[in-house]
Amino acid sequence: MRAHQDRVFSAAVRLTANDAQAEDIAQETFVKAYERFAELRGNPAAGGWLKTVATNLAINHWNRYRRRWRFFGDWGSDSEEPGQAPPDPPAAETPIRDVLADERCAAVEAALRRLPPHHRIPLVLFHYEDLSYDEIAARLNCSLAKVKTDIRRARTALLPLLQQLGVDRESLEDPQ
């Protein structure tokens, strides 16, 4: 289980953007794993199971939080289609590229933390968890149009945050 602790925490912190909440979610994930230790011991799929549990717990946390504040107004939705997703960063071929890729990943993580939850969560689920728009809408219990709009708005809001952190648009789009 120790081998998966970083993966679990990372999945939780991407969704919550809060280290304390992510630690709580990671701890709850490992409590669930302890309860199923006999099934998970030596199972090669244990890492994926742990990440899925952490993701589901983070989404449940978000849904509870969102319901609490719904009284103060809904974020609304519209039917505009999201823009193109930025391409995945290229695989590094040299030590310098490794360092640059690590710096870019750290900047993306920092920028994601600055997004509001209603933008960050669908974006993380789409790009990091590889969920479809329909799956995200079902998990977040909201409309497909809202998911598409939130992802589009998140991408739009993410670019200036990345630029503030020193990541330019070309480094995100350049395949070399």
Give a verbal description of the structure.
69% of the residues lie in helices and 0% in strands. It contains 9 helices and no strands. The protein has helices spanning 5-16, 19-35, 37-40, 46-69, 95-114, 117-127, 133-140, 144-164, 169-173. The longest helix is centred in the N-terminal third of the chain and has 24 residues, at 46-69. Residues 68-93 have low confidence and may be disordered.
Spell out the blueprint of helices and strands.
Layout: H1 5-16, H2 19-35, H3 37-40, H4 46-69, H5 95-114, H6 117-127, H7 133-140, H8 144-164, H9 169-173
Helix pairs in contact: 1-2, 1-4, 2-4, 6-8, 7-8
- Return the string of H and E elements: HHHHHHHHH
Return the structural class. Answer: mainly alpha
CATH architecture of the largest domain: Orthogonal Bundle
DSSP strand tally: 0
Helical coverage, percent range: 55-70%
How confident overall, as mean pLDDT?
Answer: 76
Can you count the helices?
9
Name the shape in a single word.
globular
Oligomeric state of the chains in view = single chain
Query: Under the CATH scheme, which class of the largest domain?
Result: Mainly Alpha
Write down the domain tally: 2
